[in-house]
Amino acid sequence: MAEKQPPTVVEGATTGDVEDEIPVAKSAEDRKAAAALSSLDAPREDDSAGLKDVDQEAVRKAMDRLTMAGGGATNGTATKKEEEKKVVKKVVKVDQADVALLIEELELSKIKATDLLKSHDGMVEDALRSFVAPVV
Amino acid sequence: MPVVLSGKEQSLFRTVVRNYEDKQYKKGIKAAEQILKKNPKHGDTLAMKALCMNSQGKTEEAFALAKVALTCDMKSHVCWHVYGLLWRAVKNFEEAIKAYKFALRLEPESVQIQRDLALLQVQMRDYQGYLVSRRAMLAARSTIRQSWTALAVAQHLSGDLAQAEGVLTSYEETLKNPPSKTDFENSEAVMYKNSLIAEQGDYQRALEHLESAGKHNLDRLAVFELRATYLTKLDRTEEATKAYRALIDRNSEYKTYYDGLIKAMGVAPTDHKAMIAVYDEYAEKYPRCDAARRLPLDFLEGDDFKAAADKYINRMLDKGVPSTFANLKHLYSSDFKKEVLPSLVQQYIDSGKSEKSEEPKRNGDTSKGASAAFYFLAQHYNYYLSRDLDKAMDFIDKAIELEPKSVDFHMTKARIWKHYGNTQKASEIMELARTLDTRDRHINTKAAKYQLRNNESEAALKTMGMFTRAETVGGPLADLHDMQCVWFLTEDGQSYARQGKTGLALKRFTSIFNIFDVWQEDQFDFHSFSLRKGQIRAYVDMIRWEDQLREHPFYSRAALSAIEVYIKIADKPLLNGSNGTAGLSEEDAAEQRKAAKKARKEAQKAEREALAKKNEPNKSTREGDNDPKKKDDDPEGIKLAATTEPMNDAMKFLTPLLQFSPKNIDVQLAGFEVFIRRKKYVLALKCLLAAAALDREHSKVHSQSIRFKLALDKELDTINPKTAEVIKSEFNLIPASVPLAKFNDEYLSKHKDCARRTLSGLTTRRLLSPDASPSVEKDIVDILKFPTVTSEEATEAYEVLKSWKSSEVDTFKSSATQTWPKATIFA
């Protein structure tokens, strides 16, 4: 069962895109036609419902509000990454030898080992102690 | 520079894509090669060819080709997309995400790549990334409800409930007309929004929303239930009571409704009088209702209990309900109730009432009155809290005398034999029970299980084969794998482990591990499917369930068994070395290898034949079915058993156990065994401390503590000084001032009545001073004289003696056989 899965799964998850890949794949010149084709294709599933009941103007407004709230959809990746880094980066300096020790003894990934060490202000003994202590 | 194709070749390329889509991989590759003849460096074509090859099972070649494609045209999103798909197919989702992201950078407008990326992100639980993707997808298709719902789900999963609710509201506000009442998608979305409000803890608003938006919801039961819950939470007693009463009128057998009603009425859990009044009311209202009669037995005590139980038991036995005991055994945690129940049944028999009620026997309703009462008592004396196997056997024979054809009765008889420790007799009787109703799948699986317990692997498979699909390639075993029959694989594996067939045992346990992988993988399709169908609540439930998947006892049981086998493999070379039998085991290994080779060849042959057969009628269209990956190159598990790093292999099973079942003491104990062998002392200590926190006096916690101390004293120099310092200060299970031998003696005298702990203390004594072995072995034989010793404990002691090749084995055996004359396990 396990081994039988992959091909079917790939197909299942991507039939849509392979269909649509046809026009896209035609390289540069045909892109316009391709775009038209895929836009025909895209909202196909429930296009009718969408056009009938949805107030286009209201959708546009809702989208604007959302974009403001969400901090921009397109550059979201970049901002999010920066934010994450900021959170993690406390002003704790860690000794790489200690990190290596934690990786060796506790079989953690480097990232997790560093985080553990940082959350104990770089004190490797404290990090080990808290790791060993049983969770109640 | 990317090659540009001519018009004719472009259409050919489209054919390739279509062929791939239709799973005609051979044709696709042919067409691709035609293009490549003229344009050997066309990246997109190379990539598509790679994709087709991958689907044929040529993974490595596909990867190589995809890389060539990328070097030819590294700015092609098709090449990157294909590269992602290949990683995705081998389940390396992280690499796949990277490739998709790159493809998306080259072609930001591609809906398909964006969708594939999003699905992978949620599969990997990268909620931040998923949010970004869903935002982009919403921007691309903002008129579709699905896009909005999907974003809400993303926000919900990443923990932002208020935002999620806001997104759903935003969409609702864009609608010109309210959706029709029969719009299922809308109906589900409303309930989903309601659950979001409730999850924020704002029950007042949730109730209002439910009563306005949810008024005509299609899921009426959910609306009723939620309303009752919210009203209770808001202390609106009268309405809540009414709501629960309405629910009980819908379904008077559901315990939760009674609990809700009593809570809503404000009845204290100690106020039995008020509670019984509620139940009595419904017992009267619904004469056929069981719950209202059974539930009060949970809380009633003393004479009240006696009276209620008497009524209940009479009613059930008169009807001859086979599940009477199963329905009442939960009460056995109370010693009083454990005494009362069988005495009531005995009274029932003595009163002769059973004879009278035998009169109105109706069509086929056989096991009534007396036989039902005997059956109850047989189960009572077979139950572990009230076990007296001889009495149990007596009663079941009486019951069988009355109903010689009863499957249930014979099943219980087999179970009694099992508890006697006689697996053979148990298996025989269960097989007899099976023949009484050959079309019943339940008794069929029971018979197979008992055969496995008696190590009759082949017979068990044959029994199972009566209910598997006949046409499955590879026979019943393959079908049981396909059907993910975990219980069978577990029992089969454990049976092989008992027989010392390490390879096959590991094979089965690994199969179970893989089945859990498949279940993890299975959710993939639902990320899109559930949204399309609009079943969001069920989808969120599923995601949460998947996150805890390996908590399941199915997993821990198989994984612990696998680890046990691996530990045996790890310890074996040592044993062989000391006994000088290494040469013999090598011969064994050679023999095994030969057998494996033969088996492999046969399996391949069978596979080929089966495929050939399958292909003939519809050769060209069903290429996708000839999945070459399905071929198993190690059907006997020889490779698994031949591992040189058993402890590393065990880690695969152990890591999820420690993550998901940390409160299972067996898991922590197994973790210690693995880590101490791998010389990972901090990790071993963590497991040991966790086990001690769960049960300080556990027999294995004791022996492991001493073993840890011994290992520590021996290896202290090799441990990093910082680590050693921490270990010394944190290892508090044995006071440093007490010598180990004394510590062990204290443990022994403290638990001198417990067979299992004594066994642990004795084996530890032998470990501390090997000279004491003869006296230890004698002491182990004496464990049999303990008044409370069970046959399971005796088996453990027996195994210990056998593993030492002790001279006391025979003495132990004859003595144990006297204590348990019916058992086969000491034979």
Automatic annotation (TrEMBL), chain A:
Region entry Disordered, spans: 1-30
Pfam families (alphabetical): UBA_HYPK (PF19026)
CDD domains: UBA_HYPK
InterPro entries (UniProt xref): Huntingtin-int_K, HYPK_UBA, NAC-like_UBA
GO biological process, one term: protein stabilization
Residue ranges annotated for the Nascent polypeptide-associated complex subunit alpha-like UBA domain, each copy included: 92-132
Protein name: Nascent polypeptide-associated complex subunit alpha-like UBA domain-containing protein
Organism taxonomic ancestry: Eukaryota, Fungi, Dikarya, Ascomycota, Pezizomycotina
Automatic annotation (TrEMBL), chain B:
Region feature Disordered, mapped onto this chain: 580-637
Matching InterPro entries: NatA_aux_su, TPR-like_helical_dom_sf, TPR_rpt
Keywords for the protein's UniProt record, in alphabetical order: Repeat, TPR repeat
Superkingdom, natural source: Eukaryota
Repeat positions for TPR: 77-110, 373-406
Skewed-composition ranges (Basic and acidic residues): 601-637
Keyword Kinase listed: no
GO cellular component terms, semicolon-separated: NatA complex
Listed name of the protein: Uncharacterized protein
Species in which this protein is naturally found: Hymenoscyphus albidus
